[in-house]
Amino acid sequence: MNKPIIIMILVCSAVTLLPRIIPYFASSYLSRLPRFIRKCMMLLPVASLGALIFPLALTDFGTEWYAGLAGVAAAFASSWLRAPMIVSIIIALAVTSGVIALV
Amino acid sequence: MGKDIRMGIRDGFPIFLGYFTTALAFGLLTRTSGFTFVQGVLVSITNFAGSGQFLMMNLYNAGSLLLGIALSVFFINSRYIFMAASLATRLADPRSVLGRLMVGFGTTDEVFAVASLKGHKVSYAYMAGLIFTSYAGWVGGTAAGYIAGSFLPEVIQKASVITIYAMFASLLGGEASRLMKVLLVALVSAALNSIFILGIGISTGVSFLASLLIATVAGAFIYTDEEAGIE
């Protein structure tokens, strides 16, 4: 087995997992943070959603970016109408495949 | 306890699907990059991070030095510091060391979004169900992609990219149907991230982190304390 590849994998594992794990061991410190910072922490999940979708949901499809947009719109609309997440995803998959196949 | 695990597995199933299909592409990428099967699957077992792993492969293929790869991967992952700090305040029992290690290991974008938008504090049993279902999809998809990725029909390969984004859009739709202000905050982060990446050409990791932080602070001004859920 190629040694540099294994070392690279383990180094990347460390720089991925440490930022995720360490904050859970700093919680007594976190609860003493100012009220505004704690409010920001509560809003982080909602704020992340927009940037997690755009622009990558479009650029991942290259010139067929509209297929990505159609899928995102379908998932958003169906969940707005209270469809369970798994149903939204299946609808989005069908819409995106349909757009790619037809256009 | 058993009920919480089952609830976690159920909530994790959409992530399983999204991860499995995304990991198929990753598994295929490790194969075409000259990794052995064990090395390819080992990346997903030890990293469990979509964007970081794809970045690592891109830089490896571009012949980057280890230090450059490590710094870039750290940077694209630095958002997890904020996500983990945020999710830490929503754990029902913040004391268990093993529990915190497990949740930390599994704090991916998707697990974070699903668990923190649950609307109440989450138990370790719930998180275990959620994380291991997601992890099974990620590792299983990588293995399947390495072995069979090139046999998938092209339309399916292309369309499966939408799964993860559909999941985020679905979370957004659910939140927005409860409180319209969600859309305003999402619009800020989506617009900033698009401008940074497409307009200015900032790298994805830096752009995501900046958009996330600016939109969060904007959100703190848009939301009342009660809407944000702090007492």
Question: What can you see in these coordinates?
Answer:
The complex is a heterodimer of chains A (about 100) and B (about 230). Chain A is mostly helical. Chain A folds into 2 domains: about 1-30, no CATH class; about 45-105, no CATH class. Helix content of chain A is about 80%, strand content about 0%. In chain A, helix 5 (about 65-80) runs antiparallel to helix 6 (about 85-100). The termini of chain A are far apart. Chain B folds into 2 domains: about 1-165, no CATH class; about 180-230, no CATH class. Helices cover about 80% and strands about 0% of the residues of chain B. Chain B starts with a helix and ends with a helix. The model of chain B has no long low-confidence stretch (mean pLDDT about 90). Chain B is mostly helical and about 230 residues long. In chain B, helix 1 packs parallel to helix 3 and helix 11 (about 180-200) runs antiparallel to helix 12. Chains A and B meet through helix 1, helix 3, helix 4, helix 5 and helix 6 of A and helix 1, helix 2, helix 3, helix 4 and helix 5 of B.
